[in-house]
Amino acid sequence: MPNYVGALDQGTTSTRFMVFDAGGKEIARHQLEHEQIMTQPGWVEHDPLEIAERTNTVIAGALRHASLTAKDLAAIGVTNQRETTVVWNPKTGRPWYNAIVWQDTRTDRLVSALDRTSKGKVIRNKTGLPPATYFSGAKLQWILEHVDGVREAAQKGEAIFGTIDSWVIWNLTGGVDGGVHVTDVTNASRTMLMDLRTLDWDDELLDIFGVSRAALPKIRSSSDSNFYGMTRRQGPVGGEVPVSGNLGDQQAATLGQVCTSPGEAKNTYGTGNFMLLNTGEQIVPSKAGLLTTVCYKLGDGPAIYALEGSIAVTGSAVQWLRDQLGIIQSAAEIEPLALTVEDTGGAYFVPAFSGLFAPYWRSDARGAIVGLSRFHTRAHLARATLEAICFQTRAVLDAMADDSGVRLALMKVDGGATVNNTLMQLQADVLGVPVVRPVVAETTALGAAYAAGLATGFWKDTADLRQNWKADRQWEPRWSADQRESSYKGWQKAVERTLNWTDVG
Q1: Which of 89, 379, 443, 475 could form a Cys-Cys staple with 414, CB 3.0–4.6 A?
Q2: What pLDDT does residue 178 have?
Q3: Can you list the alpha helix ranges (DSSP code H) found in 20-135?
């Protein structure tokens, strides 16, 4: 009997494969970064073929390093950067265009025009999403309208669409040799093309974006005992293993944190920040700038919904300090640098590189550093970058409380940036609530493994998963209430300075 479950985590900046045992303990990992292609301001693309190659390499590498084979795996789950859009030819396996990444803002005029018409209301009512550059539908429309031959190819069955999960699963299950074209309810709920109530592609929404239903993947549960498909012997796994779990990365992290009861929430710190609050079987429309989304659907069970606050730029702001400004040589250097100063000296950094996401939804915003004087150093900017992550999270948490009436007594956190203890302390200070990090901080991959393992009986139910969750460290707030509110008021003034920088009319 297999003793492990594998999880492929295809993220915005890297792809990794992790293997977990029944206790949720990490057994193996291999991770590789991929290129960020930015040919124009606001454009962010990935090479789907590079991602497919990285996928094969990290799977084979993790298994090899741990001396595992396909026979050791009960199942494989997939989790992915959501909204990132790929169109490819199923007969050749070649993409028609680079993947357009969720951060990309080239569709700003398109979505702004939609939002000024009744179509914007239709999108909000059916999908729980505002018309925004963030989501897949407008990216797909851009490809159909700007890449020669794609629309005609789609009519002939030579161009199909997917978010990254669909691309990865299609390749894992055979590609041109019988690859399965599927997605799950969580990823489909991020496209502006699926009705939250029917959990199916909606004809009115498809018509708005000019998308053919035939080009779309079949929508399945996030954990499916019928499996999406099997890996191939000639592939990186080296044998047949059920691919039986699939969730968008933030929903996967929510399951990995075992936020399976209404009112439970988590916050993931990655390229961006994403806070999800489980609302159970109830669809809660947001009035405070949040998203209503599918949290997960396990087998034949009901869909579980969530409120989400999505922040575009958090960890990627640290990358910007490293790659564009050269202020640090590695992401890990930001913590000791920030600790060389007691505070930011009144400086604020609003990293609105892709506009502002929740709860503002302003695609006209652009990044700004305010409050500078000759006194300020790179250390102040490093600390302001960490505080920016925390202030953006505070704005989302306040909106979540307004929408749901739930005021969290504890914030569960996960993701790569949670290794930064200074960041976690600042987060507790800014929020005024304790912050707790689990032993397994990479809960995105763990959630994908959970979904896959539940489908095959590796784990019996979510109660089994809850027994695996263990706290690693907890941070208590240190700031006074006056300091907290004064600092946040300065942040709000800084946000105002970022607005109306681009014309999206």
Answers
A1: 443
A2: 93
A3: 48-65, 108-115, 118-127
**pTM for this prediction:** 0.87
Calculate the alpha carbon distances from 377 to 30, 431, 488, 494, 497 in Å: 37, 26, 22, 19, 21
d(C-alpha 78, C-alpha 502), whole Å:
37
Consecutive H or E run containing 25 = none
User: pLDDT for 290-337, tens place per residue?
Assistant: 999 999 999 999 999 999 998 888 888 999 999 999 999 999 999 999
Rounded distance between C-alpha atoms, residue 86 and residue 136, angstroms: 9
SS3 per-residue string spanning 329-348: CCHHHHHHHHCCCCCCCCCE
Phi-psi region of 235 (alpha: psi -120 to 50; beta: other; left: phi over 0): beta
User: Rounded CA gap, 298 and 317, in Å?
Assistant: 35
Do residues 338 and 259 make contact, with C-beta atoms less than 8 angstroms apart? no
Q: Tokens 């990490």 appear where?
A: 26
Q: Provide the token pair at 76.
A: 């494989």
75 SS3 class? strand
For residue 5, give the nearest of 453, 476, 388 by alpha carbon. Answer: 453
| Crossing angle (nearest 10°) for helices 481-497 and 421-431 | 100
Alpha helices in 214-356 (DSSP H): 249-256, 315-320, 334-338
Instruction: Please report, for residues 16, 60, 293, 448, 454, the alpha-carbon distance to residue 71 in angstroms, rounded to integers and kept in the order given.
Output: 20, 14, 36, 19, 18
Count H helices and E strands in the chain, helices first: 16, 23
**Hey, what's the torsion of the CAs at 356, 304, 471, 250, to 10 degrees?**
-30
CA gap 153, 125 in Å, rounded? 32
Find the distance separating the first CA and the last CA of the chain, reported in whole Å.
60
For residue range 10-60, what is the model confidence (pLDDT) as tens digits? 999 899 999 999 999 999 999 999 999 999 988 999 999 999 999 999 999
**Token pair listed for 141:** 């429309």
Choose the weakest-confidence range: 214-223, 242-251, 276-285, 483-492. Answer: 276-285
Please compute, for residue 485, the number of CA atoms within 13 A of its CA located in the half-sphere on the CB side. Answer: 3
pLDDT in tens, 336-394: 999 999 999 999 999 999 889 889 988 889 999 999 999 999 999 999 999 999 999 99
Rounded to whole angstroms, the Cα distance separating 221 from 242 reads 15
